[in-house]
Specification:
The complex is a heterodimer. Chain A is an all-alpha fold. In chain A, 87% of the residues lie in helices and 0% in strands. In chain A, helix 1 packs antiparallel against helix 2. Chain B has 14 helices and no strands. In chain B, helix 7 crosses helix 8 and helix 11 packs parallel to helix 14. Classes of the chains: A mainly alpha, B mainly alpha.
Chain lengths: 90, 336
């Protein structure tokens, strides 16, 4: 179990660093989502399942979706922009 | 002999008078909230992709004229600037490193996690653990604490969530009946935004058909069993809200608008918060001296037990679920 916890903590730190280092905003949100999922498992291991439920629903679910919608609003998702311009030219 | 005022049009008194009369909107000039009409006319991206590209090119030209793009700010020309940038980088790394060092150093002085002699293991938690079940009737001590001993804190938390959703409403709401030019443009943009996304995605719809009922039932289970098992109003409400968002994503706004409109949202949140306030604040007005609520505590472990905790849990769950859903719809189309 100790080894499992250690692996989870290392993954957590790796996620946290790579969120800051990733250039693409979409990728960094997906990494942030996985950070929340790992954190959720760690909450279960720390014997607080109620926090784990909240983390899974809010951290991995709602927050990331709101981030995605914001990226869409400020048109930071690059691929979609090219799609739109192609459709406009047709 | 009085001084002649030749610049009466520029005087503050005239501006003030106009403002009192309601002729001039002072905010229109000073604040950045509204883009002046001259810049955006005919370049809105609703006009098609070509005008959008032309607009972006024009904007880049405009940007190059700004002083920040002048030659003095080009590091390949100005060597002092290049030196300053290197120095800046070095200093920022140094600052970050020292901050991390200080924080880690403080952490080393914290008591060991879970140690019995820690200052947080005092008589308060001992009393909660010993007499919590007897006094609140909740098997789950955490819920007994946050909805009985410290129910007023939880009320504040629900209010914070409600106020946050109000702020998002103020910032992102698009008035459907407004004839204002800017509002109309934003409404068109939102509609255009939704036009170009995949609709009726078969994989998403089939997955949602299976998942949404399970998620909703799990959320209701967490809310209703808040006093018996881990969870409670906030976690259950968050699960319910994310289930609703998944349903909305799969089937679109027309399906959800049949049962969840702005009126429903307003009434549900208001009723839940008012009930919570009325049910709990009387005992805090009398000094939190544990007046009887009149509801029997019941046998611990039964679903109808622990007095007021179950209805309070339902209230918190409703507020949280509605707020999560409202956040999403406001971000998507600026209204419910």
């Amino acid at each position: 179990m100790k080894v499992f916890e250690l692996i989870l903590l290392i993954v957590l730190i790796g996620c946290a660093i790579s969120v800051a280092c990733t250039r693409d905003l979409l990728t960094s949100i997906v990494i942030f989502m996985s950070y929340s999922l790992v954190m959720c498992v760690i909450w279960v291991l720390l014997q607080s399942p109620d926090l784990a439920i909240t983390e899974a629903a809010v951290g991995a679910g709602v927050t990331s979706i709101l981030f995605f919608v914001t990226l869409k609003k400020i048109r930071a998702i690059r691929k979609e922009k090219t799609d739109e311009s192609e459709e406009g030219q047709l | 002999m009085s001084r002649k005022k030749d610049n009466y049009d520029q005087s503050r008194w005239l501006k003030f008078k106009n403002w009192v009369d309601g002729d001039v909107d002072l905010l229109a000039k000073g604040m950045e909230a509204r883009v002046p009409d001259g810049n955006t006319d005919g370049s809105g991206w609703t006009h098609g992709a070509q005008s959008l590209e032309a607009y972006e090119a024009a904007q880049e030209e405009e940007l190059k004229k700004l002083p920040i793009f002048a030659k003095g700010f080009d590091p390949s020309v100005d060597h002092g600037l290049a030196l300053f940038r290197k120095f800046y980088r070095f200093l920022s790394v140094l600052l970050c490193g020292s901050l991390i060092l200080v924080l880690l150093w403080t952490v080393a002085y914290l008591p060991i996690f879970g140690n019995a002699g820690n200052p947080d293991n005092n008589e308060v938690s001992a009393r909660y653990i010993e007499r919590g079940l007897q006094e609140t009737g909740a098997v789950n001590i955490v819920t007994g604490m946050i909805l009985d001993y410290r129910a007023f804190d939880t009320f504040g938390e629900s209010c914070v969530l409600f106020i946050a959703s109000c702020c998002v409403l103020v910032l992102l709401r698009i008035d459907a009946s407004s004839k204002d030019k800017q509002t109309e443009k934003r409404r068109k943009e939102a509609a255009y935004d939704r036009l170009y996304e995949p609709k009726n995605d078969i994989i998403l719809q089939k997955c949602a058909c299976i998942l949404v009922p399970v998620i909703l039932i799990f959320g209701i289970y967490i809310v209703l069993n808040g006093h018996l098992s881990p969870g409670g109003g906030f976690s259950g409400g968050a699960v319910l809200g994310s289930g609703l968002i998944l349903y909305l994503n799969a089937f679109g706004f027309q399906k959800t608008e049949r049962f969840f409109t702005e009126t429903v949202y307003r009434r549900t949140t208001l009723c839940a918060l008012t009930f919570y306030c009325l049910a709990k604040s009387y005992s805090f007005f009398t000094g939190a001296n544990h007046l009887d609520s009149g509801i029997p505590l019941g046998t611990p472990g039964a679903i109808l037990s622990s007095g007021l905790i179950l209805p309070l849990n339902i209230c918190v769950g409703l507020v949280v679920a509605c707020t999560m859903y409202a956040f999403y719809t406001l971000f998507r189309k600026g209204g419910m």
